[in-house]
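Handout, section B. The chain below has 253 residues.
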Amino acid sequence: LGNPVLEFATDFNSRAEYFWSHGLISDSTYNMFTSVCNYSRYVSEYYRDSVSPSCSKVMSQVSRETSKFVDKYDVTLDVCISSVLSQSMAINPQQVSERVDVCVEDKIVNYLNRKDVQKALHARLVGVRRWTVCSNILDYQLLNLEMPTISIVGSLIKSGVPVLVYSGDQDSVIPLTGSRSLVSRLAKELELETTVPYRVWFEGKQVGGWTQVYGNILSFATIRGASHEAPFSQPERSLMLFKSFLEGKPLPE
């Protein structure tokens, strides 16, 4: 499970600490974001089309300080100021690394809208004028986000299914801090002892991230330098993580 929403309040409210600890918001804004209106409350009100004045004020301040020009899915990397997206000035492309074009998402969109590509992919274009990322054609029941899924993870573990929860450590949307605390809490509820203490793991000669394992069945890991879409921004490290998990082997030390 990569950067998952396991529990609405815990996961969403960890955003404030992440913003503050990474220098994206001030002390005063952090205090408002954790006392006056936290993020889970704002999202809940927003989905119900009933945002309160206090939450509106707090979120305006948070947005002003974090800036439109910081990619919340990968806070350390540049954003793409492209001709395609510049009118909105609200952009969230992903970047593979500093050596890779940050506007790769624009190029993918253009590529997938080529008629020859769509024909080769046997794309069904009924009712679709143009392919876009995260299209609004599908109507998601956003209130379902408030339904906790951590209990389902617990049920899988009880039935003997190994579980790995991992986080890209540059993602502020579903930060690692929320996932880590939820995994730790679940381990305590299931009475799982720590079998691999919190430690670094390696991909090649570089630190790939950090990991901890409970009862040899529940694992938590971070992928260093990874975004919300970890395999996109850190493919080698993501592959090492997945390969080790699928083979039932510990992450390299």
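Note. The radius of gyration is 20 Å. Compare this with the example in section A.
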